[in-house]
What we know:
- The model has no long low-confidence stretch (mean pLDDT 83).
- The chain is an alpha/beta fold.
- The site of guanosine-5'-diphosphate has 15 residues, from α3.
- GO terms for molecular function: GTP binding.
- It is found in: Cytoplasm, Cytoskeleton.
Amino acid sequence: EVPRxxxxxEENIRCLTMLGHFGFECLPHQLVNKSIQQGFSFNILCVGExxxxxxxxxDTLFNTNSREKKSSHFRxxxxxxxxxxxxxxxxxxxxxxxVTTVGYGDQMNKEARDILHKGVGKGVAxxxxxxxxxxxxxxxxxxxxxxxxxxMNELISNGIQIYQFPTDDKTTAQVNSSMNEHLPFAVVxxxxxxxxxxxxxxxxxxxxxxxxxxxxxxCDFVKLRDMxxxxxxxxxxxxxxxxxxxxxxRCRLQKIGFTDVGPDNQPLSFQEIYETKRKEFHEQCQREExxxxxxxMQRVMxxxxxxxxxxxxxxxxxxx
Length: 320
Ligand code: GDP
């Protein structure tokens, strides 16, 4: 039997119902919730000659409709066409910005070369480069393998570093290393739906059959989509931010005199560089101010002498 006093105590105890997770195991959930609330963003720059199939490919990837505004194939210069889409898949929002080159290859002119150099500066990639072969339905299987090796050899011999799918994460290492072997991806873009058996599929209808965009035996479209939008999206963004942007920022700062090592090859802190620059600027201002003062005083003296001369002449002429 339970003594009376202790039963009363038990009745006073407040029972708390558990909310599932507690403690720091909740941290990942907080991050997931925050990311979902903020939404994600992803930027793609699609470079290639006019008519190569860029807009069609982007539309096929994201189910968008950018080809409505068709671009002329005879442009005098190269422009960047920027399109932003707000996409949603279940409760995940994605702000997609697609930049395509318009007029590239119409005339191999200065702007075209500039755009190429912005992406690849002396072999140092400033963006993640994923090489593609467009309109892969127009090349035979054997020729495609030769073409792929030729492109890879040219990239290597020109010292152009392309993006490598990461192999340091156990969960994706195998698929990523196999995908690295498939580069450049040979893709086909198409918004048309064709009947194959009982199903409607995205594909190009030819007199001899249908090229199914999402059939891995027909082209590498699914590989590209998985790598870009499923397996490595976050890694692509991370590399852009920590490697390419950092490299760009450092180059720009170096151009205006901010280096991160001193004359003795010792690393300098940003604060130190800032203080040195501030001192240099202050001293330059003082020098210029002194120079101005000096010039001003000289002009004043010259004027005074001229006045005195004029005064003298005036008094002489009044005496006469
Ligand atoms: P962009 O100028 O690079 O944006 O090229 P478009 O996307 O406007 O495509 C130019 C033409 O190529 C259009 O007639 C498309 O239907 C066609 N096209 C696009 N992708 C493919 C493809 O994968 N295979 C084939 N055979 N034609 C394609």
